[in-house]
Protein backbone atom coordinates (compact mmCIF):
# COMPACT_ATOMS: atom_id res chain seq x y z
CA UNK A 1 0.00 0.00 0.00
CA UNK A 2 3.00 2.23 -0.21
CA UNK A 3 4.60 2.68 -3.56
CA UNK A 4 2.48 4.49 -6.12
CA UNK A 5 1.82 7.88 -7.65
CA UNK A 6 2.52 10.86 -5.42
CA UNK A 7 -0.62 12.94 -5.08
CA UNK A 8 1.30 16.04 -4.00
CA UNK A 9 -0.35 17.87 -1.14
CA UNK A 10 1.20 20.13 1.43
CA UNK A 11 3.13 20.40 4.62
CA UNK A 12 5.04 22.95 6.60
CA UNK A 13 2.21 25.49 6.39
CA UNK A 14 1.81 25.27 2.64
CA UNK A 15 -1.49 25.18 0.81
CA UNK A 16 -2.88 21.70 0.21
CA UNK A 17 -4.46 20.19 -2.84
CA UNK A 18 -8.12 19.12 -2.55
CA UNK A 19 -8.34 15.83 -0.67
CA UNK A 20 -4.75 16.05 0.60
CA UNK A 21 -5.16 17.24 4.15
CA UNK A 22 -7.49 17.09 7.14
CA UNK A 23 -10.78 18.90 7.29
CA UNK A 24 -12.36 19.20 10.70
CA UNK A 25 -12.03 15.92 12.57
CA UNK A 26 -10.71 13.91 9.65
CA UNK A 27 -9.83 13.63 6.00
CA UNK A 28 -12.10 13.68 3.00
CA UNK A 29 -12.84 9.96 2.44
CA UNK A 30 -11.24 8.53 -0.66
CA UNK A 31 -10.82 5.22 -2.48
CA UNK A 32 -7.09 5.72 -1.80
CA UNK A 33 -7.84 4.67 1.77
CA UNK A 34 -9.40 1.31 0.91
CA UNK A 35 -7.90 -2.14 0.59
CA UNK A 36 -9.95 -2.71 -2.59
CA UNK A 37 -8.22 0.19 -4.30
CA UNK A 38 -4.72 -1.03 -3.50
CA UNK A 39 -5.55 -4.64 -4.38
CA UNK A 40 -6.65 -3.43 -7.81
CA UNK A 41 -3.57 -1.19 -8.19
CA UNK A 42 -1.11 -3.98 -7.44
CA UNK A 43 -2.91 -6.55 -9.54
CA UNK A 44 -2.39 -4.18 -12.48
CA UNK A 45 1.21 -3.43 -11.53
CA UNK A 46 1.96 -7.14 -11.10
CA UNK A 47 0.60 -7.86 -14.56
CA UNK A 48 2.61 -4.95 -16.01
CA UNK A 49 5.79 -6.22 -14.38
CA UNK A 50 5.19 -9.75 -15.66
CA UNK A 51 4.58 -8.49 -19.19
CA UNK A 52 7.07 -5.63 -19.48
CA UNK A 53 9.40 -5.77 -16.47
CA UNK A 54 8.23 -2.35 -15.26
CA UNK A 55 8.52 -2.13 -11.46
CA UNK A 56 6.06 0.76 -11.20
CA UNK A 57 6.32 4.19 -9.59
CA UNK A 58 8.00 5.12 -6.33
CA UNK A 59 5.86 7.14 -3.96
CA UNK A 60 7.67 10.45 -3.25
CA UNK A 61 10.35 9.50 -5.80
CA UNK A 62 13.85 8.09 -5.52
CA UNK A 63 14.92 11.14 -3.54
CA UNK A 64 12.76 10.00 -0.62
CA UNK A 65 14.60 6.66 -0.46
CA UNK A 66 17.99 8.37 -0.65
CA UNK A 67 16.97 10.78 2.12
CA UNK A 68 16.09 7.96 4.51
CA UNK A 69 19.15 5.84 3.76
CA UNK A 70 21.36 8.93 4.15
CA UNK A 71 19.85 9.51 7.59
CA UNK A 72 20.48 5.89 8.59
CA UNK A 73 24.08 6.21 7.42
CA UNK A 74 24.56 9.54 9.22
CA UNK A 75 23.39 8.05 12.51
CA UNK A 76 25.42 4.87 12.01
CA UNK A 77 22.45 2.54 12.13
CA UNK A 78 24.02 -0.94 12.19
CA UNK A 79 23.63 -2.88 8.96
CA UNK A 80 22.20 -5.79 10.95
CA UNK A 81 19.50 -3.62 12.57
CA UNK A 82 16.00 -4.99 11.97
CA UNK A 83 14.09 -2.72 9.58
CA UNK A 84 10.35 -2.85 8.82
CA UNK A 85 8.87 -1.18 5.72
CA UNK A 86 5.19 -0.57 6.54
CA UNK A 87 3.09 -0.86 3.39
CA UNK A 88 5.98 -1.90 1.18
CA UNK A 89 4.04 -1.82 -2.10
CA UNK A 90 6.39 -2.89 -4.91
CA UNK A 91 9.26 -3.42 -2.45
CA UNK A 92 11.69 -1.14 -4.28
CA UNK A 93 12.79 0.50 -1.04
CA UNK A 94 13.59 -2.93 0.39
CA UNK A 95 15.81 -3.55 -2.62
CA UNK A 96 17.66 -0.28 -2.01
CA UNK A 97 18.16 -1.10 1.67
CA UNK A 98 19.53 -4.55 0.81
CA UNK A 99 21.86 -3.14 -1.83
CA UNK A 100 23.17 -0.65 0.71
CA UNK A 101 24.02 -3.56 2.98
CA UNK A 102 21.15 -3.89 5.44
CA UNK A 103 20.76 -7.60 6.15
CA UNK A 104 17.58 -7.80 8.25
CA UNK A 105 14.82 -6.07 6.29
CA UNK A 106 11.13 -6.95 6.23
CA UNK A 107 8.34 -5.61 4.06
CA UNK A 108 4.65 -5.95 4.86
CA UNK A 109 1.54 -5.07 2.91
CA UNK A 110 -2.10 -6.05 3.25
CA UNK A 111 -2.33 -6.58 -0.51
CA UNK A 112 -1.25 -10.10 -1.55
CA UNK A 113 -0.61 -8.78 -5.07
CA UNK A 114 1.78 -6.16 -3.68
CA UNK A 115 3.74 -8.86 -1.84
CA UNK A 116 3.81 -11.03 -4.96
CA UNK A 117 5.04 -8.07 -7.02
CA UNK A 118 7.72 -7.33 -4.41
CA UNK A 119 8.82 -10.95 -4.44
CA UNK A 120 9.14 -10.95 -8.22
CA UNK A 121 11.17 -7.72 -8.21
CA UNK A 122 13.44 -8.96 -5.41
CA UNK A 123 14.06 -12.23 -7.26
CA UNK A 124 14.88 -10.32 -10.43
CA UNK A 125 17.46 -8.32 -8.46
CA UNK A 126 19.00 -11.58 -7.24
CA UNK A 127 18.42 -10.77 -3.57
CA UNK A 128 17.55 -13.43 -1.02
CA UNK A 129 17.87 -11.78 2.40
CA UNK A 130 14.58 -9.85 2.32
CA UNK A 131 11.52 -11.04 4.22
CA UNK A 132 8.02 -10.36 2.91
CA UNK A 133 4.70 -10.87 4.69
CA UNK A 134 1.04 -10.25 3.93
CA UNK A 135 0.08 -8.27 7.04
CA UNK A 136 -2.57 -5.74 7.96
CA UNK A 137 -0.58 -3.30 10.09
CA UNK A 138 -3.72 -2.28 11.96
CA UNK A 139 -4.03 -5.89 13.16
CA UNK A 140 -0.46 -7.21 13.10
CA UNK A 141 0.43 -10.77 14.01
CA UNK A 142 2.24 -11.36 17.31
CA UNK A 143 5.35 -12.41 15.37
CA UNK A 144 5.68 -8.89 13.96
CA UNK A 145 7.73 -7.27 16.73
CA UNK A 146 11.16 -6.21 17.91
CA UNK A 147 12.14 -3.85 15.09
CA UNK A 148 14.88 -1.25 15.49
CA UNK A 149 13.61 0.86 12.58
CA UNK A 150 10.10 1.27 11.12
CA UNK A 151 9.58 3.20 7.90
CA UNK A 152 6.39 4.63 6.38
CA UNK A 153 6.25 6.40 3.02
CA UNK A 154 2.57 7.13 2.42
CA UNK A 155 0.84 4.32 4.30
CA UNK A 156 -0.33 6.51 7.19
CA UNK A 157 -1.54 8.97 4.54
CA UNK A 158 -3.66 6.28 2.90
CA UNK A 159 -5.09 5.07 6.20
CA UNK A 160 -6.11 8.65 6.96
CA UNK A 161 -8.32 8.62 3.85
CA UNK A 162 -10.23 5.45 4.77
CA UNK A 163 -13.99 6.07 4.51
CA UNK A 164 -14.65 3.71 7.44
CA UNK A 165 -13.77 5.50 10.71
CA UNK A 166 -10.33 6.78 9.74
CA UNK A 167 -9.84 8.45 13.12
CA UNK A 168 -10.03 5.10 14.90
CA UNK A 169 -7.76 3.51 12.30
CA UNK A 170 -5.13 6.18 12.91
CA UNK A 171 -5.23 5.34 16.61
CA UNK A 172 -4.87 1.65 15.76
CA UNK A 173 -1.85 2.50 13.62
CA UNK A 174 -0.09 4.26 16.49
CA UNK A 175 -0.87 1.35 18.83
CA UNK A 176 0.50 -1.14 16.29
CA UNK A 177 3.63 0.94 15.81
CA UNK A 178 4.21 0.97 19.55
CA UNK A 179 3.90 -2.83 19.65
CA UNK A 180 6.28 -3.64 16.79
CA UNK A 181 9.00 -1.04 17.49
CA UNK A 182 11.62 -1.54 20.18
CA UNK A 183 12.00 1.03 22.96
CA UNK A 184 14.41 3.72 21.71
CA UNK A 185 13.75 2.46 18.17
CA UNK A 186 13.21 4.94 15.33
CA UNK A 187 10.15 5.59 13.19
CA UNK A 188 10.78 7.41 9.89
CA UNK A 189 7.65 8.79 8.27
CA UNK A 190 7.20 10.67 4.99
CA UNK A 191 3.79 12.27 4.39
CA UNK A 192 2.08 14.55 1.89
CA UNK A 193 -1.14 14.79 3.93
CA UNK A 194 0.22 15.88 7.27
CA UNK A 195 2.29 18.84 8.44
CA UNK A 196 5.08 18.48 10.97
CA UNK A 197 2.86 19.93 13.70
CA UNK A 198 0.01 17.56 12.90
CA UNK A 199 2.29 14.52 12.90
CA UNK A 200 3.69 15.59 16.27
CA UNK A 201 0.15 15.57 17.59
CA UNK A 202 -0.76 12.22 16.00
CA UNK A 203 2.31 10.49 17.46
CA UNK A 204 2.42 12.35 20.78
CA UNK A 205 1.77 9.27 22.92
CA UNK A 206 4.82 7.07 23.31
CA UNK A 207 7.00 8.85 20.76
CA UNK A 208 9.14 11.97 20.68
CA UNK A 209 10.51 13.93 17.74
CA UNK A 210 14.14 13.03 17.07
CA UNK A 211 14.76 14.96 13.86
CA UNK A 212 13.04 16.72 10.97
CA UNK A 213 14.49 15.75 7.60
CA UNK A 214 14.92 18.32 4.82
CA UNK A 215 12.42 18.01 1.97
CA UNK A 216 11.89 19.95 -1.28
CA UNK A 217 10.37 23.40 -0.93
CA UNK A 218 8.06 25.22 -3.31
CA UNK A 219 6.63 28.71 -3.74
CA UNK A 220 3.19 29.51 -5.13
CA UNK A 221 1.07 32.64 -4.97
CA UNK A 222 3.42 34.35 -2.58
CA UNK A 223 3.44 31.42 -0.16
CA UNK A 224 6.16 28.87 0.36
CA UNK A 225 6.43 25.57 2.14
CA UNK A 226 7.32 21.91 1.81
CA UNK A 227 5.49 19.52 -0.49
CA UNK A 228 6.02 16.71 2.03
CA UNK A 229 6.89 16.31 5.69
CA UNK A 230 9.61 13.85 6.71
CA UNK A 231 10.14 13.23 10.42
CA UNK A 232 12.06 10.82 12.61
CA UNK A 233 10.42 9.81 15.87
CA UNK A 234 11.98 7.79 18.67
CA UNK A 235 9.92 5.45 20.85
CA UNK A 236 10.10 6.47 24.50
Automatic annotation (TrEMBL):
Q: Which GO terms describe its molecular function?
A: protein-lysine N-methyltransferase activity
Spell out the Gene3D superfamilies in the cross-references: Vaccinia Virus protein VP39
> What highest taxon heads this organism's lineage?
Eukaryota
Classify the main location: cytoplasm
Catalytic activity, per the record?
L-lysyl-[protein] + 3 S-adenosyl-L-methionine = N(6),N(6),N(6)-trimethyl-L-lysyl-[protein] + 3 S-adenosyl-L-homocysteine + 3 H(+)
Question: GO CC annotation: what is one?
Answer: nucleoplasm
Write out the ranges of the annotated region (Disordered): 1-29
Give any single GO term for biological process: methylation
Q: Which UniProt keywords apply?
A: Cytoplasm, Methyltransferase, Nucleus, S-adenosyl-L-methionine, Transferase
Question: Domain Methyltransferase: where?
Answer: 81-211
UniProt EC number: 2.1.1.-
Q: Where in the cell is it found?
A: Cytoplasm; Nucleus
Pfam families in the cross-refs: Methyltransf_31
Q: What class of enzyme is it?
A: transferase
Q: What does this protein do?
A: Protein-lysine methyltransferase that selectively catalyzes the trimethylation of EEF1A at 'Lys-318'.
Q: Which PANTHER family does the entry mention?
A: EEF1A LYSINE METHYLTRANSFERASE 2 (PTHR12843:SF5), PROTEIN-LYSINE N-METHYLTRANSFERASE METTL10 (PTHR12843)
Provide the family line: Belongs to the class I-like SAM-binding methyltransferase superfamily. EFM4 family.
Q: What is this protein called?
A: EEF1A lysine methyltransferase 2
Organism of origin is Capra hircus
Q: What is the lineage of its organism?
A: Eukaryota, Metazoa, Chordata, Craniata, Vertebrata
Gene expressing this chain = EEF1AKMT2
